[in-house]
Amino acid sequence: MLLFFISGFGNLNFSTAFMLKKKRILFGCNKIIVTFVIIKLKLKNKKMKRFYILFALLLTSGIAFSQIANDKAVVVKKMHVPASMMTKTPTDTCGWSVNFIPEFAVGGSVFIMGYSTGGYVYGNNEVGANGTAQGYVYDGTLGLEGVLLWFGAKTQATPTATMAVTAYALNGTALNDPSNTPGPGTVLGTASLTMADADTTWPNLTWVPFASVLPSNSDFAVGVDFSALTATWDTATGDIITGDEVGLLCDEEGEANNLDYAFCKYGSSWYVTDYVYGGLDRNVAIFPVVDINYVGINDDNYFYGMQSNAYPIPATDNMTIEYALENSSDVTIEIISGNGQTIAEFNQGNQTQGQYSFQVNVSDFNAGHYFFSIKANGHRLIKSFIVE
Q1: What is the chain's pLDDT, residue by residue, as a tens digit (388 residues)?
Q2: Within its chain, how far is the Cα of 319 from the centroid?
Q3: How many structural domains is the chain composed of?
């Protein structure tokens, strides 16, 4: 629309040829720049020159990233999710559960997506799109305690180099086609992660806690900002020359079902990744963990028919898990390590409505961050705890 406005302004003979395709802009950036240079030379009025050139700069800066990134995403590696993880055990709070939309890797495969001139689509890369986020649909009140990140690959030069992990309300704007859609907006809270702590051992996950529980009452997103990482690449091969690079995993093409809740950040703007890369309908391996303080054992509300609490935290020898069922159900309690691996499972059988308690001996556990999971009614709720 802006091009048509400019072409008609001042009765200029300005011809343009472009085609819009779903999730793709086929526009020649260089042609736009050359066209505006020609316009500038033809204009006689100096004030009008500045007017047109200003519009040219605004236009080219607004669409430049979508042109640069188009068709630059390449599959580096495909991996099959272990069968034990397909039960959604470690990360089903968000991403791996029907409780939230979208559900991650329903087909059982994950991918490392590289950027053709260097780096990763869902990480830092040569073009400078150094932020990625995944949004979730949820109509209700919850608390975000932290996030599990599933990294696929990294090259580490500086172990202390940091990435920022941020939770957002989805009340902002993401550039999209044919019109902009909701994107990361109000910051709910932040945390940080070093390159050394980004676990790429297959199939481990990386736990990043927020300093306090972050309340959310609508759709939300969690993103990772890689802009503090520095690297240089051989743009002909995409190989890293110096510095740090790291990338998150994603799921199969089409598994995002055109929800447009996967985002990348270029400069200060958020874009829908499907739009930027000319078709990349995938979810990012960013899994927020819901804090169940919002549905503790003394609360009036249930989280999918369950309530939960644990004490003491931190634990040193024995920890008591309390839980309540709104209805009768088969119950399983699982203990999960900080990298997402199930380390203990306790089948409680069929239990009727009411409150229950269960003791776990953690004296042999290494100090660190863990989760316990209560599975009932076909759902799970997860809460974290600390062993000292």
Answers
A1: 333 332 333 333 322 222 223 333 323 333 333 333 333 333 344 444 444 444 444 444 445 566 567 789 999 999 999 876 665 433 446 887 666 889 899 999 999 999 999 999 999 999 999 999 999 998 777 888 889 899 999 999 999 999 999 999 999 999 998 899 999 999 999 999 999 999 999 988 898 988 878 888 899 999 999 999 999 999 999 999 999 999 999 999 999 999 999 999 999 999 999 998 888 999 999 999 876 445 554 555 666 688 888 889 889 999 999 999 999 999 999 898 877 778 899 999 999 999 999 999 999 999 888 888 888 877 777 778 889 8
A2: 32
A3: 3
Last residue in a domain, options 222, 255, 290: 290
Question: Are residues 156 and 40 located together in one domain of the fold?
Answer: no
The pTM assigned to this predicted structure is 0.71
The two three-digit tokens of residue 100, written as one number: 């939230």
CATH number at residue 361: 2.60.40.2550
Look up residue 81 and give its two tokens: 């999710």
Q: Which domain holds residue 17?
A: 2-69
Domain boundary among the residues 15, 34, 69 is at 69
Report the candidate in 135, 150, 142 with the shortest Cα–Cα distance to residue 101: 135
Together in a domain, 257 and 302: no
Tokens representing residue 252 in the block: 């199969």
Q: Among candidates 188, 127, 206, which has minimal Cα distance to 369?
A: 206
